[in-house]
Write a structure and sequence with these properties.
Distance between the termini: 40 Å
Order of helices and strands: HEEHEEHEEHHEEHEEH
Radius of gyration: 19 Å
Oligomer: single chain
Structural class: alpha+beta
Largest sheet: 4 strands, antiparallel
Helix content: 25-40%
Shape: globular
Number of helices: 7
Strand order of the largest sheet: 1-2-4-3
Length: 235
């Protein structure tokens, strides 16, 4: 369980979860409108139960009852297959509403419509929160062919508009001296991409927050040529 104590550390970690796989919801009234405080819901595959339990340990600081983790099934977006998942859903809490009200856009009935990468997110997210975001939506593609570079990393940000992805890219470059490239997926949406020689500047600072079942998100081979990978650096 996380030993986070300070309010800003808890907030910064939860922001990272919300920007990744976690979702914030308002309770619905009988008339169908969403009102009141927010709750948080997170689901992962059963293989990542330890990762979800770790997240629950951070969120637990907001609640005075043990947060339950349940097992159910979900339908894949592609193929419609059912697969087992573990899920955490809390009750409502005003500090979750504070986060939601600063990063979410709402629909006509008060439901959360879209999350945004804005100044509130970038001013309040912590290294631990950024690590959760990467572990949720980022992955490494290792190139093991002889004579080639070590590979590259992809950070999927498909639910955010291009200006938000560019804002995150600029913030990472300013704060981590790590230059990432904005790319558009053929099916829509945007992602950040760069060779490991550059991305490692960021990943090495986030790696201490990896849980055992997510450590592979930070595992890359050592450079092969004088400390550098032979990878393209064009934007």
């Amino acid at each position: 369980m996380s030993q986070l104590k300070r309010r800003k550390d808890i907030r910064g970690a939860i922001i990272g979860m919300v920007m990744g796989d976690a979702s914030l919801y308002r309770n619905y009234l009988r008339n169908g409108d969403a009102s009141g405080n927010h709750k948080i819901s997170i689901a992962h595959s059963v293989e990542q139960r330890g990762y979800l339990e770790h997240k629950a340990g951070v969120i637990q600081h907001l609640f005075d009852y043990p947060l339950p983790i349940s097992e159910s099934s979900a339908t894949a977006k592609r193929g419609g297959k059912r697969y087992p998942v573990v899920r955490l859903q809390t009750r409502v809490h005003p500090r979750l509403s504070q986060i939601a009200n600063n990063i979410c856009e709402y629909g006509d009935r008060g439901q959360v419509k879209q999350k945004r990468i804005n100044d509130y997110v970038l001013n309040n997210i912590t290294l631990e929160g950024l690590a959760y975001w990467w572990m949720d939506d980022g992955h490494l593609q290792i190139d093991k062919r002889p004579g080639h570079g070590g590979g590259w990393g992809v950070w999927g940000l498909y639910g955010f508009p291009k200006e938000d992805v560019e804002k995150l890219r600029d913030w990472i470059e300013e704060n981590f001296d790590c230059s990432l490239n904005v790319r558009q997926h053929v099916k829509g949406g945007y992602f950040l991409r760069r060779g490991i020689s550059e991305l490692r500047k960021l990943l090495d600072q986030l790696k201490p927050y990896a849980t055992p079942d997510m450590a592979y998100k930070f595992e890359y081979p050592e450079p092969r040529r004088n400390g550098y990978y032979n990878l393209s650096s064009s934007r």
